[in-house]
Sequence to fold (482 residues):
Amino acid sequence: MGEVHLHRRDKRARGRPPQPPAVGAIRRHVVWNAGITALGGLLFGYDTGVISGALLFIGKDFPGMSSIDKELLTSVLLIGAMVGALLAGKIADKIGRRPAVLGTSALFVAGVLLAACSPSYGVLLGARVVIGLAVGSASMVVPLYIGEAAPPRIRGALVSFNQLAVTLGILVSYLVDYGLASTQNWRLMFGLAAVPATAMFAGMLFQDESPHWLLSQGREEQARAILAQVRDEGDIDAEITEVRALSQRSSTARDLLNPKIRRALVIGIALAVFQQITGINTIIYYAPTLLSSAGFGHSAALLANVGVGVVNVSMTVVAIWLLDRTGRRPLLLSGTTGMAVGMLALALTFLLGGSQLHGTGAYVAIVGLFVYTGSFAVGLGPVFWLLISEIYPVMIRGRAMSVATIVNWSANFVVAVCFLSLLAALGDDGTFFLFGSLTLVALGYFYRQVPETKNRTLPEIERDLGLPVDAAERNLFTYTDR
Ligand code: BGC
Fold:
């Protein structure tokens, strides 16, 4: 289908001299592309968030579920996501970005329908793995596809736009969980994700292949015809020359071990680990479970969860607005400080009020949750994804980004799988003190190591990180500016 689409366009392009696209046409194409990104991010957020409310009701169909079974159900998705992120990059290189996105959305549809119809706990577990494969794959392939298709001047904005879509997906899942709480219909909670997944599949059918991927396959004529739809005519030749040169000098996994890029690699990995071990997903996945065992009714717990989702989205909007104004570092440092304050407040309420929260204690706990989540959303949430797209030389950017993404999913898995057991071993107060302390360690690390990238060209960032700056070495690790 995609090829037919391309060839038709190709013939059209060959038959007459290339026409410069109208500004409106470029904008339409870019908006349409952004819509597809939004659906991928939305599904990533929805499918990771929906479990929080569903966990309250799944037990009634599968009696005897232990807290380990619940942890497993939450975290097998993350194993799928690790594998999905690992395979998706390779598949997208081999068969193209477009079929990879189509496959990802088909996997989403299959996984959520299987989850909705699961006759047993085992099948549900399997369905969560399938959904995880799709989530991990979407977290890699959709930004890759969009990044390559987007005009360079708006590529940065689209990266953070993806994080906004993730938080919106989480919020929608919380609203659905809350709306369906009275019917306890956890199957529908899972199944509704089939709607955006189908829309993503259908939308993608009308998209072209990534021009950069076509160039890497030597299919210049097709790439040129597609670029002609989305670029000013004068920019096309330079872009083709650059992409062709880069794809001829493709990097290998060994390039990642080059001591010259070690600092950037370590910073990306550290950000990935800290983004998870400071506990965000213990809140995103488990807040209702936590609140209902602290004495909140199911509805009150799910409503507070919707509050968490709203704070998460709103503060992400604030972050997108501020990132290019105040810079990344002030947001990262103040956000991480706020996270530590929120987490420690939560720990203190449990320490002073015991495991059942009433009156003031319950309110302080909710405020602590909001402060923590809002601070994450304004700092570490978007800044991690943005920085890993900025701090690596272009030659190894794809590989280095996938290392950081896989490490992020792995750390997410470790935290999710341990959380309920940690609660049992250390108590609520001990667990939240642990996360609060790890947040302080993260803050110290960010303060000392993470560079400011606002208004810096990529070669300047390269110099800040001690990366190769002379001409010969630059030749090995070339940056291109956005
Ligand atoms: C993180 C996810 C998290 C989400 C919450 C993302 O940046 O990678 O693990 O669930 O933010 O908004």
Observations:
- The chain is about 80% helix and 0% strand.
- The radius of gyration is 23 Å.
- Residues 156 and 379 are 16 Å apart (CA to CA).
